[in-house]
Structure formats: structure tokens, C-alpha cells
TrEMBL record:
<keyword id="KW-0489">Methyltransferase</keyword>
<feature type="binding site">
    <location>
        <position position="77"/>
    </location>
    <ligand>
        <name>S-adenosyl-L-methionine</name>
    </ligand>
</feature>
<keyword id="KW-0830">Ubiquinone</keyword>
<feature type="binding site">
    <location>
        <position position="121"/>
    </location>
    <ligand>
        <name>S-adenosyl-L-methionine</name>
    </ligand>
</feature>
<keyword id="KW-0808">Transferase</keyword>
<comment type="similarity">
    <text>Belongs to the methyltransferase superfamily. UbiG/COQ3 family.</text>
</comment>
<comment type="pathway">
    <text>Cofactor biosynthesis; ubiquinone biosynthesis.</text>
</comment>
<keyword id="KW-0949">S-adenosyl-L-methionine</keyword>
<dbReference type="GO" id="GO:0032259">
    <property type="term" value="P:methylation"/>
</dbReference>
<dbReference type="GO" id="GO:0102208">
    <property type="term" value="F:2-polyprenyl-6-hydroxyphenol methylase activity"/>
</dbReference>
<protein>
    <recommendedName>
        <fullName>Ubiquinone biosynthesis O-methyltransferase</fullName>
        <ecNumber>2.1.1.222</ecNumber>
        <ecNumber>2.1.1.64</ecNumber>
    </recommendedName>
</protein>
<dbReference type="Pfam" id="PF13489">
    <property type="entry name" value="Methyltransf_23"/>
</dbReference>
<dbReference type="InterPro" id="IPR029063">
    <property type="entry name" value="SAM-dependent_MTases_sf"/>
</dbReference>
<keyword id="KW-0831">Ubiquinone biosynthesis</keyword>
<dbReference type="InterPro" id="IPR010233">
    <property type="entry name" value="UbiG_MeTrfase"/>
</dbReference>
<feature type="binding site">
    <location>
        <position position="36"/>
    </location>
    <ligand>
        <name>S-adenosyl-L-methionine</name>
    </ligand>
</feature>
<feature type="binding site">
    <location>
        <position position="56"/>
    </location>
    <ligand>
        <name>S-adenosyl-L-methionine</name>
    </ligand>
</feature>
Amino acid sequence: MSNVDATELDKFSQLAHKWWDRNSEFKPLHDINPLRLAYVEEHAGGLTGKKVLDVGCGGGILSESMALRGAQVTGIDLAKKSLKVAQLHSLESGVQVDYRCIAVEALAEEAPAAYDVVTCMEMLEHVPSPESVVHSCMTLVRPGGIVFFSTLNRNLKSYLMAVVGAEYVLGLLPRGTHDYARFLRPSELSRMARNAGLSIVDVRGMHYQPLTRTYALGEGTDVNYLMATRRPG
């Protein structure tokens, strides 16, 4: 598929063995996962019995947590080493998730309107064409279904906190994790969603507290934010 950045895939492949190490470079994902899961459950009206697709699932942190809530989860990613780690962890934990190495655009052609819920978290800022991903997510969710996105805002504050602070000062993430130019303003992501045929349900900020090193959801989308959208019908 053309909507792939080989450098980004290689970046995550090199760290693949650390996905489930809660003290590794992936610690921030483990820390925010309860917030992401709660947000998804809130706007999806629960996950029990629902067919869920996790786009850009990586090592399966969110995928497994949704499966534990009773969802039938499929996780897709193009980083084969990350998927291998996800599959091995699924075997160890006993949490069943169907992992596939397939681009979201290809799956959209294969299984349109097949899912009740689609999640695409911390992934849009790593692909050349986020618009293509957003449109494919809309295609994959059933009419009336809900699609979730999370990404980083593009402004001076997000650059200072997510790049300078997180990567160079606090060392929360490896240097070079993010390309600031690919961050998306909420207005830009909202426009992409509406152009794809999705309606905006909610936008919520995710805030990091440096003193306590904890995260919380709240007002303000200056840095990280979550967006819930719905396909009409």
C-alpha cells in the first residue's frame, strides 16, 4: 500500500520486544490505556458482544483491554514484529484477539461496514495520508457505528511538551518518535472526518501532569486529544 512510511515501521519494529514492558519506551501507552478504554466504553455504550477493529494496534495493549471487556477484537498493523509480539502476548494472557498484517485501506475493500466500533489511536501522525486512514475507518464501521481517533495537536505547546519535553527532557519517549509536521489540529481532523462522512460526537483533551507523572482526560486539546465520531445511518 502507498500509505506507508517505511521509516516509521522500522522505528516501531526495533522496539517491538518492549511493547509489554511497562517501564520501557511504551510506558506512556500503558499509562494512558485505561483512559482510552474508558473513553471508548463511554461513547460506544459498552463493548460486550461488539465487533471491534483496532487500527494500528501495535503490540496489542488497547486490543487486549477491549477484548477483556467482552468485545470481539481484530487488531491490524503493518509492523510485523509488533504483531508477532501481540500474538505471543495473546497466547500468554489467554485474551483472544485476531491479529492481521493488513493495511486499513485493503481491509476496507475486503470488509466494508463489518464493525460496530473502530479505534485508531496514536497512529494518524505516523502515516503519509491520514485522510486515507480516516476514510477507510468510516468504510469499515457499520452505519450507526462509532469511530475513535487520538492524535497530537499541532502548535507550539504540543511541540514543547510532546517533542521537546517528552523525548528530550523527561525521556518518556525515544528521540525521533514524533514528526511535529504530521501533528493534526482538531479542526483538521474534524474536517477529514466530516469529509469522510462521519459526524463529530465528542472531542476530549488528554493531559499529562509532570509532577505526578499521571494522565487525565479533560477540557482543552492543546496537546493530546481523543475524538469520537459516528457514521450516520
